[in-house]
Amino acid sequence: MTANSQIILFHYPHSPFSARVLYYLALRGIPYDQCIQPQILPRPDLARLGIRYRRIPLLSIGRDVYLDSPLILRTLERAAGAQPSFASTATLEQRALEQLLAKFALDTSLFKNIVQVLLPQTPLIHNQAFMKDRVDMMGGGPEFDFGNFVLATRPDAIVEVKNAVEMLETTLLADGRQWLAGTAVPSLADIEMVWPLHWLFSTPGALPEEHISPRQFPKVFAWVDRFEAAVGQARKALRAPEALSGERVAEILKMAAADEAGDLVDPSDPLVQARGLQKGQLVQLWPADTGSRHKTVGRLIGLTDKEITIETTEGEVSVRVHAPRHGFHVAPLASEKANLS
Fold it and tell me: Could you tell me the CATH number of the domain that includes residue 227?
């Protein structure tokens, strides 16, 4: 991240993954601007940058665009100038808890179960354009009825979400602590766990209150309320983000500096060795789970055990796209592979 680089968040209102990043920006006191995106495809603002990746949020710092909220938070954490306006998880146990909670929220079935609990109780279940878009994101065919799927699986999902809430109630919050890592103010550990629960709790009509309610789980609901209040207070001290058009963002990124510090294709990486990947090679990048049909094309400029970086070649403006190694694939384009053989 270069000094004084403008931070721009690409998101849409009520996106739970975007909320995760917005919480962080507020609690860290990091100013940013935003480019609001449609809830469903197409997203011409991103196409203009040569980005086919279809999930939200994305965040640009200078000419570097970061995909996936875990990488976004990790990048912001290591950025110079981040304000210590929330607690540092200083001990090994606290840092381990932070990482375990992130995996529990993202890499287990918790989020999927929350979607299955929440979606049937919202008007979106009757929005054909939205449902068709989400089937595409999941990789389903035209015959797959996502609405019937979530309705049929909702009872089991309620039980799974209830068990997750009960785990917090009877373990981390059972001793009366205010924050999950035992800190005096919110920490990254709280952000890693609170965002899907806050989404469920705050969506009107979504909560199955006969199974999950403040009466049954008072400590968890009080913790979510405390967190919401802390974020609200932090936002008062942060300037309001400017809403930027896609055209304006393209102008800004075209003139912005790039962070080239991590431009390394590690020759010892097993994937590099197996596929003969080379710096400057034309590749495609895509997520391993949802949205895998939408592959971004560019020149490979970085690949380590933590991160993949490509420079886009298909948009009006070329940007450097960063994705986490975990949960993403990168491979040569078929034509490029043939040329190299």
Answer: 1.20.1050.10
